[in-house]
Structure formats: structure tokens, C-alpha cells
Amino acid sequence: MAPGVPSGDLATRWTTNILKDRLVAFIQKLGQAWDNDPRVAYVELGLWGNWGEHHIYPDQLADETDRIPLSFQTALGDAAEQAFQNKKVQVRYPDTFQNYDFGLLWDSFALIDDLEGGEGIVARDNWRTQVNGGEVAYDWGQKHIQPGDSPDDTLSDIKHLNYVIDWIKKTHTTSLGWIDLYDAQNPAVSQGAALMQKELGYRFVINQATFSENVQPGKKMKVSFQVVNKGSSPFYYNWPVEVSLLRSDRTVAWKGIFNNVDIRNWMPGDDWNSSTRQYDQTPSDQQVSGNLISLPTCQRVLTPWRCPFLILTAIVRVQDLPMQIIIPAAGHRLEKWALAWILLTRTSGLSTA
Question: In whole angstroms, what separates CA 256 from the centre of its chain?
């Protein structure tokens, strides 16, 4: 039977090789379970320290620090890199895991007493490829100054709301916890939550879209659109942009993928300006186009206008809403076309993690 982790003094308990080996083995098992699980967006690498937060404050180790030792950073970092090759990984402190390209989790997000956490994330500057997130702490520090005494206080008081949004934009944050425990029945609070949700993560907005007005069965249809990321961070995985042909009951009759489109490159702006409440480096417009082939023949229906419509279901938004473009079915011309809306799943938001 393998020996257990010593339960003596803190230095021994948190620095023993037995604990290190067990944590490494546990990360390997987590990778087997989660690395290819589509329900998992990214992984917060905790495990060591109080609440798995990579510190043992107010206690200290033999070196008079309370942070995760370098030997554990190396062991857990190596294990996470190997175990999670298809998932992004976050760690707690910007001054730890310096040899690893991990995202950061600011555990006292925007708290006036812990601004070094946010400043460290800004300095690390790896948001273009790694996910940043956090938790708005309401259990310590001078929270009454910033970011507020409770989720409702943060979201309903404009000075708190704008302050937290400033840090979301500066750190390119994708998700926040604890603050999600707000009163959705309170109109002022709910309005603030909607405004903050809009700033978290990516937000793709279509400025312009064009498509072939008339397409014969089996021929090519050209679809193009211009999109800009008005959010705070990119979309971190290479998901496809798809065009779908829907039947009248909204089941998919045909679909095609835009080739050579990598939405990870649809970057937001950078260098947030709290005075103008805009990025000084504005985001670039992205142009997407494709010739989509082998459109099927329209099935016989009561009238020509009841044929399926072609709908663009890319992860994009118009006027802050996801967009789908309804266009004529193959072989038919529709004199008046319309826009419709569909809610698409986002990986960013006020999480419950």
C-alpha cells in the first residue's frame, strides 16, 4: 500500500515528494477524462495550497514564502502540458509558472487590495493565445471601495460596474465567477449584468454581408461577410464557420464550411483607455468569403417560397445579437429577404465556476 501524505508541519505537508507524485498522477487522470471532452472549455490548475489557490497564507514555508514552490510548479506544469494538449490551462499567480504558456486566474478580481494581480496579468501579456479569467472576491479587503460589497452592489452601482469592466478590458478576461450570484429579478442589477456580459470574452459583430441572389441546383453560391471582434478576448479554439441550408422545420438539409478561416485570429482591440472607454488599438475588420458548392435541389412544396432558406450560422453578431442571414433556396429568387436571429452558445460569460 502506498504511503500517505504526511500530516505533520505545514512545510512537510505541502512540499513532500509523495504529494508531488500524487498530484502529477491526478493531473494525468484528469487529462484522460477531460482533454477531449467538448464540455470542458479550459482547466484551472489548482490542487496545491489552501483551496487549491497556490498559496498557504497566512502560513509560510521554510523559505518564508506562502506560494507554490518552484519544484511543484515544474512538476505540475509539465504534467498539465502533457495531459491537456487540447485544452487551455490557467494558473493563479502571474509570477508563478513563468516557464509555461498558461493563462491566468485572478482570484480576487478587481479588488482594490489586490491590484498587483491584475497588473501582473497585463504585464504577462499572453492573452492572445491563453485564456484569462477570475473570481470577484466578496469576503476580504476593502471591497466597499472597489469592486463593491456584493454582486448586486457591483452590478447596480455605475462606479463599481465601470471599474470592473475596465479590468475586464485591460486583462482581456473571458469569464468571472462569484459575481454571477446576483439577483436577476432586480432590474438595475440585471441591466448591469447584461452590460458586463457584453464585455466579457469575444463579441463578433457583422458589419456587412453579401451572397448570391440566385443559385441553380448543383452550382456554387458565394457568401461573404465582414466581421469585427468588439469583445475583450479572442475565441481560443479553431471552430469552423458554417453555412447551413434548413428545411421548413429547421432541420439541416445541407451544410458547408468556409475553408481557410481561423476565428482564433479575430482579435479584439488592445490598450484599454478608461477615460474614453475604448481600446486605443482598435480591432481590425475580418473579411470572410467562400464559394460553397453542391447545393441540393429544392424539394417539391406548396409554393416556391416555402423552399428551404440558406442560413449563415457563423458565430457572429449584428447589433450585439447573434446573426443568421436568410437567403433564397436553390433555384429560386426571393424578392424580399429578411434577417432573423438565433441564440448561439458562448464559452465566455458570468460563470458559476
Answer: 25
Q: How far apart are CA 272 and CA 213, in angstroms?
A: 41
293 contacts: CB under 8 Å, gap ≥ 6: 219, 220, 256
Residue 271 DSSP class:
E
Report the DSSP pairing between strands 286-292 and 278-281: unpaired
Mean pLDDT of the chain, nearest integer? 83
DSSP 3-state of 289: strand
> How far is it, in rounded angstroms, from Cα 183 to Cα 198?
18
Query: Does the N-terminal peptide bond of residue 58 adopt cis geometry, omega within 30 degrees of 0?
Result: yes
Which set of grid coordinates corresponds to residue 185? 429579478
What the block records as the C-alpha cell of 309 is 432558406
| Bridge-based pairing state of the strands 221-229 and 204-211 | antiparallel
- Mean pLDDT per 10-residue section of the chain, whose length is 353 residues: 72 89 97 95 95 93 93 98 98 97 97 97 97 96 98 98 98 96 97 96 89 75 89 94 77 81 96 98 94 56 36 35 34 28 30 31
C-alpha cell at 117: 494581480
pTM for this structure?
Answer: 0.82
Q: DSSP 3-state assignment of 199?
A: helix
- Of 110, 115, 172, nearest in space to 147 by CA: 110
Output the CA–CA distances (angstroms, integers) from residue 349 to 11, 181, 325, 346, in the order listed. 38, 13, 25, 7
Rounded-to-integer distance, Cα 84 and Cα 34, Å: 8
Model pLDDT, residue 2: 64
For residue 155, give the nearest of 185, 118, 194 by alpha carbon. Answer: 194
Beta strands (DSSP E) in the chain are: 42-44, 88-91, 103-106, 132-135, 173-177, 204-211, 221-229, 242-246, 252-257, 270-273, 278-281, 286-292, 309-312, 317-318, 321-322, 324-327, 339-340, 349-350
Q: Which helix (H) or strand (E) holds 106?
A: strand 103-106
- Asked if residues 211 and 234 have their Cβ atoms less than 8 Å apart, the reply is no
What is d(CA 28, CA 174) in angstroms, rounded to the nearest whole number? 26
Strands 242-246 and 252-257 turn out to be antiparallel
